[in-house]
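Box 3.1 A note on notation
Throughout this textbook, protein chains are presented in two layers. The first layer is the amino acid sequence; the second is a token string describing backbone geometry. Keep the layers aligned when reading.
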Amino acid sequence: MSIPRLLAPACALLLAASSALVGACSPGGGLGPASQRNLFTELLGKSDAEVQAKIDSAWQQQFYGDDATQRLYYPVGDDQAYIADIGNADVRSEGMSYGLMIAVQLDKRAEFDRLWRWVKAHMYHADGPRRGYFAWQCHFDGTHIDPGSASDGEEWFAMALLFAAHRWSATPGSIDYAAEAQAILDAMRNDDRGGEITAIFHPIEKQAVFAPTKHASRFTDPSYHLPAFYELWARWDRTEAGRRFWADCAIVSRDYFKKAAHPKTGLMSEYAHFDGRPLDGEKGDFRYDAWRVISNVALDHAWFPTDGWATEQSDRVLRFLLSQGDFIPDRYTLDGRPVSTDESVGLFAMAAVGGLAADPKLAKPFLQRLWDAPIPTGRWRYYNGLLYTLALLEAGGRFQIHAPACAR
């Protein structure tokens, strides 16, 4: 496969620098827009101060709110903390990775470091066939419920750590964010494990697998496709093989979205085959995981616009959701039949981020819904709440590429 058009000028030099360290400057620019769009200001007329205040409120509630009804972040001892899935009474690599990303985007180093120390202390596999991976599900005391990995956790860990490496200066005794990130990038490609454990990225398909086991590596989850992240890894991985691999993954994922999206509704399934066909059964429907594909397509367009498909796709899916009327169910068959009688702020949040690529007239109603929605509380505040806050950052211009200092 060829290097993406936007990467080509830089990669000719970059790929020759096989000894470059993670966090070193790539020889070229193109790292997204000079400034991030603030859709709340553009489309709703909110001031920058109003947007910041809303984001600050979400941070304060989810990280320091009431223990029983509000917060998701729980400190442990002097130097660790976890993000709790309250409804399921566990800690998940997904939530920990989102917490890390929120912290680095908001310049909250102390909270970031606490979260990462908990991850390394309790989720990390130091040896065995899962070496370099992280258990996706733990009890609050850190013991494993399931030692297996969910591929999106590792993906978001790597991206958050790279941003941290570029945003915060190293100090004596501090976490080596760049080294931790590189170790994950290497581990995700490593297929030399033996037994039932595989690479997180299929070496031939160049796609994130649903989970790195012999069975679950036969298919993917469309929401695990993050081409905007792969573009950055193609610049910042310290190995030539890694840079080439991630550049190919970015191409594959963009093409994959086109195969996986329903031609009329734009909906994608929760789980799917590598050729985009949905899995049989309810996992072939548009369900909770699949909400995130809306934002993945739009964020990639915002950072690395290639062609007009991302706009067509974002328009398609937002137009379909708006066609449901005032009440928008949160789950559907791909051809648009509701399979739920619930609404969820997490879906509205991801649809609002879709505004980074969509027609403003289609995006505005979802931005208004997100703006008006209360910060999620109660038993099911984990997933909806994290998507709510990530969407505030992405739609509000605070979800940024943190590049090495000499590349800014």
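Residues 1-24 have pLDDT under 50 and may be disordered. The longest helix spans residues 240-260.
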